[in-house]
Amino acid sequence: MESDSLLTGSVNGDYGSGTARGSRRMSYSVAGGSCSVEEGADDEDLYIQQAVVFIEDAIQYRSINHRVDARSLRLYRWYYSRICQWCLGLTIAVVLLLAFVERPSSLSVTSDPRHRSQAWEPPCGFTESFEMLCLIIFSLDLAVKSYLIGWEEFRKNKWLIGYTVVISVSVIDWMLSVSMVCDEKLRVRRLIRPFFLLQNSSLMKKTLKCIKRTLPEIASVILLLALHLCLFTMIGMLLFAKTEDPKKNEEWRLHFRDLPQSLTSLLVLLTTANNPDVMIPAYTLNRGYAIFFVTFSVIGTYCLMNLLTAIIYNQFRGYLLMSVQTSIIRRRLGIRAAFEVLSCKGVKQAAEERVCVDAVLLVTSRVQMKSYYREAITTEVRQHYTVGYMDREQFRKIFDELDKDHIREHPPPPHYNSSVLQGLQNIFKHYYLSIVGNAVALANIMCICTVLVLNSEKSTAERDNYTMEIINLCFILYYLFEMCVKIFALGWKGYLSYKSNIFDGFLTILLLILQITIFVTYRLSFSQWDPSSHGVMPLWEMIRLVNMLIVFRFLRIIPDIKLMALVASTLLDLVKNLRAFAGVLVVVYYVFAVFGIWLFEGAIKPPQHMSVLSNTTMENITSNFSMECGSYEQLGYWPNNFDDFAASIILLYNIMIVNNWHVFMDAYSRYTTEWAKVYFVFWWLTSSVMWVNLFVALILENFTYRWDRSHSCSVTEVERIRYETSVQLMFKEQIQEPTEEELCRQLHMHPHLHLY
């Protein structure tokens, strides 16, 4: 939605630094509508270049508060060029991916310590060389940003100061690592690497600000949850205290032996991960004990946890609107700045501000934008050729085309002279043909399901592959027929203009190739050789691949069903709108994974030759080992560990899902210390409580808007909304356009264009 900008503060902040060499000093009077140039007035190319950069800032929603002299503008455009930004993004990806290769290396087939072979460990200096190259690029990035905004703004920008500190700490830690021949146990720079990802995205910074704003409300609910947990822990320890009768002590022994165990049991019950296991011993003795556990779950799980979701949704429901509002202000300000520059170039003293049409066309030709935007804007500008000039409002309106996404028009169908061919063309391009195709695809799926059910208990040799092969061949021939008649009705270009047809046609051709391969390999009479003995895929495997592709092809029905099309378009839009949240989630995963490796690497080690040991002998190997039902060891969770970075990421994901997360917490608290539970609880709060609810809130907001808007639309109109409406137009009714006074005030506060 919003491109990264050099400045992440307010768009109207005072970034004052001296006028750069080669820049011009311009005065502007709102009342009189006049403008004059005090120096550098003969350099018209500079004015054009400034206008070009301001328009590009408006297109990308960037701040215009940067140097505007000729040399700085060339550097600025180079910095935001596609190749430069691509290289910077690649550098960030490389420095983050180094964690998978560094010690402990993740380059092994399995993470199970019982079967894992020795992972490849890079020699000292291998990853360090790549890392130093990345740090050099980051240093250059910092230098360019600092120069373009000026020293005064650099001193006030916390992100750039933090950028400097992180690079400095990384370089120092890198030097210590190399001096110790890469044998150090703790690498501080691994923990701060995600900062490079954060500082390069203004959307991620904005997301962090929203989270910071939400924390007080979340903290109040979490405090209430803690009070609820402590209260029921006390009641539980009193209810299930140890008695003289050993038969009645099962609940005490398993879940309420002491305060830490009681807190842990009820905290896990809050996530429903150990329900109903935690209540079974007491419920077996007296059904009345169920009241305690049901009351705890109703208040904690269904009231307080859902209240937390409601608070997060309420705080973030306006997130997209606020982000779009800021983006619109930046766009209007960039367009207005370009107008002021061009008006001073074309008219040095005039009663009314206006710009020359030729100058606008020249600027449009130099601006880096998509071709269809350029064509639309150029068409609007040419309508003012007869007058020769454009006023402020006309100049602003021609750039309203930037708020619209490109509507892809389908090519016209071919024209046939024969009436018979025209009749066939009308039949084959009718919507009913797609309905019939969907029905045939459904019938194919049902046939596959029927055959799979009949062959579920049969071995490979007993399966009737010939029947399945014939059935698939008949359906594939129909798919080929459907593709051909659509090409006949729509033409090649018209057929390929629909993404659903590309998806359908690609799978149809792939299925036909596989079916021909099966026939040539296994059904020709002159084939006397055994294909399986020559490394060829067995017949059943090839048929199974065909069946999977047919099932995948059934997704073609999504665009033809309104609700499915709406859900699919919402998911695709979420991919764009949730990139910032996904990026912050990557940062959180990265930091917790590094901490997990520091704290728990190699903590859980399976006994040697455990496959030949009995349960009784296993218990004597170590006091931490446990083969109780539901334990880490009994469930075989050995691949879930913190022994390398990739395994840590998977383990953190499994904990975020909360199913059996208490198993991991119990295992690491047994093998290390009880304080290990703090780490797992913090991760549960951060991931499951905070981020899952945050994603739910944003999905609700996005889907609710689309549902309300497309409730009365047809399937084709839903698809048109998908292409025609940008995020800015989604909130057009709620967005407040900046007033003339606001734009003038922000232009007056520009650090390098001094307006007065």
Helix content: 55-70%
Strand order of the largest sheet: 1-2
- Per DSSP E runs of 2 or more residues, the count of β-strands stands at 4
Low-confidence stretches: 1-42, 346-351, 611-621, 718-726
Mean pLDDT: 80
Shape: globular
Q: Biggest β-sheet: count, sense, barrel? A: 2 strands, antiparallel
Instruction: State the helix count.
Output: 31
Share of β-strand residues: under 5%
Estimated structural class:
mainly alpha
Distance between the termini: 33 Å
- Alpha-carbon Rg, integer: 33 Å
Q: Any chance you could write out the topology, listing elements then pairs?
A:
Elements: E1 26-29, E2 34-37, H1 44-59, H2 70-79, H3 82-97, H4 126-149, H5 151-156, H6 158-179, H7 188-192, H8 194-199, H9 202-239, H10 250-255, H11 259-270, H12 280-285, H13 290-316, H14 319-346, E3 355-356, H15 357-366, H16 371-382, E4 389-390, H17 392-398, H18 419-428, H19 431-454, H20 465-496, H21 499-522, H22 539-553, H23 562-577, H24 579-600, H25 615-619, H26 645-657, H27 661-671, H28 676-710, H29 715-724, H30 727-730, H31 740-748
Antiparallel strand pairs: 1-2, 3-4
Helix pairs in contact: 1-2, 1-14, 1-15, 3-4, 4-6, 9-11, 9-13, 9-24, 13-28, 15-16, 18-20, 19-20, 19-22, 20-21, 20-22, 21-22, 23-28, 23-29, 24-26, 24-28, 26-28
Describe the structure.
The chain is globular and about 100 Å long. The strands form two sheets. It has a two-stranded antiparallel ribbon. It has 756 residues and is mostly helical. The longest helix has 38 residues, at 202-239. The protein starts with 25 loop residues before the first strand and ends in an 8-residue tail after the last helix. The protein has 31 helices and four strands.
